[in-house]
Design brief:
Layout lengths: L2 H17 L4 H34 L6 H15 L1 H13 L5 H13 L6 H18 L4 H11 L2 H4 L4 H10 L3 H7 L1 H21 L12 H9 L2 H15 L5 H18 L5 H35 L1 H12 L3 H16 L4 H12 L10 H15 L7 H9 L5 H24 L2 H12 L1
Helix pairs in contact: 1-2, 1-15, 2-15, 3-14, 3-15, 4-5, 4-12, 5-6, 5-7, 5-11, 6-7, 6-20, 7-21, 9-18, 9-19, 10-22, 11-21, 13-14, 15-18, 17-19, 17-21, 19-21
């Protein structure tokens, strides 16, 4: 059998093990170790296993992840999301569907502090759903908007997906962060247009709210300063070259820590809890990365990524055709696997193909983030949708899926725009580099 065929067998066995309930980390590790042993013998596999985990997890590029993860938990304690949400609602809450618009804008702000869509979805469901119900919003519109808006948390830097992608591909994480800013803001605008159009077609989904007074509006502006401070520190510092991404993460942690102290929302107990939860996340992610690294060594020995790149190059050099292929693959995988696993599995396969189809690593990073977001919304797995429906009583999973369907179309449009217009991702990083 050819080495490439062995690689295909390894991929098939990986999905079989997942189907029968093996943890994804162990599936990566076991198939990867067995595949390396096939090509290099048991001694060679043990050599990789003894050195690869240490080399992977002590790489400087991974130091970005724990800092931004910890910053996210501190931001939750500091109530940054609720402050910005209330401030935004005071200005646009009286629009038809205004609570949904406020949720979209607040998720855009929340993304500058937390790069995890699930945290954003849970936070805004608990915070905004009761009030949306009280005002007469239909659950399908409310939940569809909330879960779709949570994808903005991975688009607006810092983004956990972009950190992992940058580490896997050796793409500068600072450039990836800046590259995602314009697509993230455009996606927020497209979301608001989608919500406006949905409410215009069916006004019964969302009522017109009560208009806030000017005093309440000015107070609302004052509630937005934590977001503006975090945004200026993280993105501004990286853009003008004051911080590396790792240093920006440390500065963001410090700012959120001070904000939480000023708001008296931080105790020793809550601080230790945030530290512990961040450690749990990093432990889970770290073991998955180690398993995926072993698996990717096996794929490299098989030559499968190179063979796929050559096949795609012979089939098409159109970035749009390649993007449609990616959309299909990620759409299917996203139905059954979590975004982290999909990233670790697919990036080593797709990344070698970029030159053949004239896509840059920055475009692929942003495109990957969008497509993983779609996977978090689609049935039957739809991690974000399923998690929110399971955590909160009275929420129908079917309503969540129906409500998010228009936003999936919006995400697909955004994915195509990123492919057709490279300037969306290249403009800001190019200017940053030239400085």
């Amino acid at each position: 059998m050819s080495p490439e065929f062995i690689g295909i067998i390894g991929l098939v066995l990986f999905f079989v093990l997942i189907y029968f309930g093996m943890p994804i980390t162990m599936a990566f590790l076991s198939i990867g170790f067995a595949g390396i042993a096939y090509f290099r013998g048991f001694g060679g596999a043990m050599a990789v296993l003894s050195t690869s985990p240490f080399n992977t997890m002590t790489s400087y590029v991974w130091s970005v992840f724990p800092l931004f993860t910890f910053m996210g938990f501190i931001a939750l304690l500091a109530n940054v999301a609720s402050s910005f949400y209330e401030g935004t609602r005071s200005w646009i809450g009286h629009w038809r569907g205004g609570m949904g618009h406020a949720c979209i804008l607040a998720n855009t702000a929340f993304g500058a502090c937390v790069g995890d869509p699930l945290s954003a979805a849970v936070t805004f469901t608990s915070m905004s759903l009761p009030e949306m119900r009280r005002q007469g919003y239909k659950d399908s519109l409310s939940m569809g908007t909330i879960v779709a808006a949570s994808i903005l948390a991975t688009m607006i830097p810092p983004s956990g997906t972009l950190i992992v992608y940058g580490a896997l591909t050796q793409t500068p994480i600072g450039e990836l962060f800046i590259a995602a800013v314009i697509p993230g803001l455009i996606l927020a605008v497209l979301y608001m247009l989608t919500l406006w159009l949905t409410c215009r077609i069916n006004p019964e989904l969302a009522p017109v709210g009560v208009k806030a007074g000017w005093r309440e509006r000015w107070q609302g502006l004052g509630m937005m300063w934590p977001f503006l401070l975090a945004l200026a520190t993280i993105l501004g510092g990286i853009y003008i070259g004051v911080f590396t991404p790792t240093e920006a993460g440390a500065a963001g942690c410090f700012i959120m820590f001070v904000i939480a102290l000023l708001r008296r929302s931080l105790t020793w107990k809550s601080f230790i809890e945030a530290f512990t939860e961040a450690g749990k996340v990093m432990g889970a992610v770290g073991f998955m990365i180690i398993g995926a690294t072993i698996f990717n060594v096996f794929l490299a020995f098989s030559g499968l990524p190179r063979a796929l790149a050559e096949s795609i190059g012979g089939f098409t050099n159109s970035p749009l055709v390649f993007a449609m292929l990616m959309i299909g693959v990620y759409f299917i995988l996203g139905m059954f696997m979590d975004p982290g696993s999909v990233t670790l599995l697919t990036v080593p396969l797709f990344f070698p193909m970029l030159k053949q189809v004239n896509l840059s690593s920055l475009q692929y990073g942003v495109l990957l983030t969008i497509l993983l977001g779609i996977g978090g919304l689609t049935p039957p797995y739809g991690m974000i949708s399923v998690a929110v429906a399971g955590l909160f009583k009275g929420i129908s999973l079917g309503e969540v899926f129906r409500g998010s369907a228009p936003y999936i179309v919006t995400l697909l449009i955004m994915a195509i725009l990123v492919v057709l217009f490279p300037g969306l991702t290249h403009f800001l990083p190019g200017y940053m580099i030239s400085r």
